[in-house]
C-alpha cells in the first residue's frame, strides 16, 4: 500500500442474508456480485485496494474452488482474498473502511475504530439486545442507488474520534489480558500449576507478506490535467471485465483522454491486440522473456496497434518502449525517507503514453515527471536507455 491509497475490506459472515448470500433488493440478484462489480467500476485501481475477508464456513461449505470461481472476475480486477484463519486481523488494522454485515469481524472493525459501512444487516436474525444488533442500528447503511465511491469516502472522511466507544467496551471485559486468563484456565482444567517465573505472552501479529496488487483484466485509463511546467499527468485506471460498460469520466478530474492498458497475460487475449498500452510483469533476468529491451522490441512488433509497451521488472519501476523507437526506464523517485514509491508502475506507463499522445515530446518529461493518482503525486524519474540493435 502506497501513501494516499485506501484499503477497503469486504467482509461477510456465513448466512442466507449475509453480504455474500443476500440479495441487493426485492427481485434482485445476490448482493456481492453487484457490489464487486461496482467496486471495479467506481474505485480507481491506483487509489483504492480491496480485500475480501470471508467466514471460514463460506470457504469450507462451498469449497475453495467454488469460492474462487465466484470471485474470479473481481480477483482479475485486483481483489485480494484473505485465506480462512489467515491475516484477517492485520487487514482490519490496516483498513480505511470495512464493507460488512452482521459478522463478528465487522463488529471487531468498528470496535477498534475502523469506519464501517453495512452492505447487509438482517436485524430480524439477531437478538435486539446484542452488541452486534446495536451496531446495526448505529452504523451507516449502503444505498444501492447512490454512488458507492461517494458513500465509502463519506464514511471515511466523516468518521469521528471513536464513535463506537460503547461497542468497543462490550467487546472484551478484560482487554489485553487474554493470554493470562486463558493460560490460567487451561492449567486449571489440567489440574497443574502454571509455570513459575514465565509470564503468559502472545506473539505479536506477523507482518503480512508484501504482495503488490495486480490487475490482469483490461483497464480503461482516464488521463487528465496534463501540463508541461512542471511535467505532470493525472491517471485513473478502471478494470473492465467482460462486457461491463466503460467507466464514465469523473467531472472532478476535468476533461481528458481515454485509452486502454492490458496485461499481456490477461485472459481476454483479443483485447491485447487492440490495446493502447501493453504491460508485462516479470523479472528482468527471466530467460523466457528478458532482457526488457528485447521484449519491448518484440512486443511492439507483435502488437502493431499499441503505442507503448512496458516491462515491469520491479515493484517500483518498468522499462517502456514507444512506437517512435525510444526506450526509457521509469522509476519511482525515493521519498525524503529513502523509501521507494509503491504505486503500480503500470500507472507510470499509462501516464507516459498519455503524455506522448497529447503531442508533447519525450524530452520534456526528462529527467522527471509527476504521475498523479487522485490526490497523491508520484515522482517518477525518466531515464533514456540505448535501444537494442
Key features of this structure:
single chain; 389 residues; alpha/beta; 9-stranded mixed barrel; 5-stranded parallel sheet; 14 strands; 28% helix; 23% strand
Rg (CA only): 24 Å
Widest beta sheet: strand line-up? 6-7-13-14-12-11-10-9-8
Derived structural class: alpha/beta
H/E series: EHEHHHEHEHEHHHHEEEHEHEEEHEE
**Biggest sheet descriptor:** 9 strands, mixed, barrel
- Point out poorly predicted stretches: none
Arithmetic mean of pLDDT: 90
Query: Count the strands?
Result: 14
The percent range for strand residues is: 15-25%
Tell me the span between the first and last alpha carbons: 38 Å
Count of DSSP helices?
13
Shape: elongated
How do the helices and strands line up, and which of them pair or pack?
Blueprint: E1 6-12, H1 31-42, E2 48-54, H2 56-62, H3 64-70, H4 72-76, E3 80-81, H5 88-94, E4 97-100, H6 104-111, E5 116-118, H7 131-138, H8 148-157, H9 165-169, H10 178-190, E6 219-227, E7 232-239, E8 256-263, H11 269-272, E9 277-281, H12 292-302, E10 308-314, E11 317-322, E12 327-332, H13 345-357, E13 368-373, E14 376-385
Parallel strand pairs: 1-2, 1-4, 2-3, 4-5, 7-13, 8-9, 9-10
Antiparallel strand pairs: 6-7, 6-8, 10-11, 11-12, 12-14, 13-14
Amino acid at each position: 500500500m502506497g501513501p494516499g491509497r485506501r484499503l477497503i475490506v469486504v467482509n461477510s459472515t456465513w448466512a442466507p442474508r449475509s453480504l455474500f448470500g443476500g440479495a441487493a433488493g426485492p427481485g434482485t440478484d445476490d448482493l456481492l456480485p453487484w457490489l464487486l462489480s461496482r467496486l471495479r467500476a467506481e474505485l480507481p485501481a491506483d487509489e483504492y485496494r480491496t480485500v475480501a475477508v470471508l467466514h471460514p464456513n463460506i470457504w469450507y461449505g462451498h469449497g475453495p474452488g467454488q469460492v474462487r470461481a465466484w470471485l474470479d472476475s473481481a480477483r482479475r480486477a485486483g481483489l485480494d482474498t484473505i485465506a480462512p484463519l489467515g491475516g484477517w486481523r492485520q487487514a482490519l488494522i490496516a483498513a480505511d473502511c470495512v464493507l460488512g454485515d452482521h459478522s463478528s469481524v465487522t463488529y471487531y472493525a468498528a470496535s477498534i475504530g475502523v469506519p464501517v459501512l453495512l452492505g447487509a444487516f438482517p436485524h430480524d436474525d439477531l437478538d435486539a439486545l446484542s452488541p452486534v444488533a446495536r451496531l446495526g442500528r448505529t452504523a451507516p447503511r449502503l444505498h444501492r442507488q447512490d454512488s458507492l465511491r461517494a458513500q465509502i469516502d463519506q464514511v471515511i472522511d466523516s468518521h469521528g474520534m471513536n464513535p463506537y466507544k460503547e461497542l468497543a467496551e462490550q467487546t472484551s471485559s478484560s482487554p489485553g489480558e487474554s493470554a493470562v486468563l486463558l493460560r490460567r484456565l487451561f492449567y486449571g482444567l489440567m489440574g497443574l500449576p502454571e509455570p513459575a517465573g514465565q509470564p503468559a505472552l502472545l506473539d505479536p501479529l506477523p507482518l503480512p507478506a508484501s504482495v503488490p496488487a495486480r490487475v490482469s483484466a483490461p483497464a480503461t485509463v482516464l488521463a487528465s490535467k496534463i501540463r508541461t511546467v512542471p511535467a505532470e499527468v493525472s491517471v485513473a485506471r478502471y478494470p473492465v471485465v467482460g462486457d461491463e460498460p466503460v467507466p464514465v469520466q469523473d467531472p472532478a478530474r476535468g476533461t481528458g483522454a481515454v485509452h486502454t492498458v492490458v496485461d499481456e497475460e490477461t485472459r481476454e487475449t483479443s483485447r491485447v491486440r487492440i490495446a493502447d498500452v501493453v504491460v508485462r510483469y516479470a523479472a528482468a533476468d527471466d530467460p523466457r522473456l528478458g532482457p526488457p529491451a528485447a521484449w519491448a522490441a518484440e512486443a511492439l512488433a507483435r502488437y502493431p496497434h499499441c503505442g507503448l509497451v512496458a516491462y515491469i521488472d520491479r515493484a517500483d519501476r518498468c522499462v517502456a518502449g514507444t512506437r517512435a523507437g525510444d526506450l526509457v526506464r521509469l522509476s519511482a523517485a525515493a521519498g525524503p525517507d529513502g523509501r521507494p514509491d509503491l504505486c503500480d508502475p503500470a500507472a507510470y506507463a499509462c501516464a507516459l503514453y498519455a503524455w506522448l499522445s497529447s503531442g508533447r515530446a519525450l524530452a520534456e518529461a526528462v529527467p522527471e515527471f509527476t504521475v498523479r493518482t487522485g490526490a497523491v503525486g508520484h515522482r517518477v524519474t525518466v531515464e533514456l536507455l540505448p535501444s537494442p540493435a
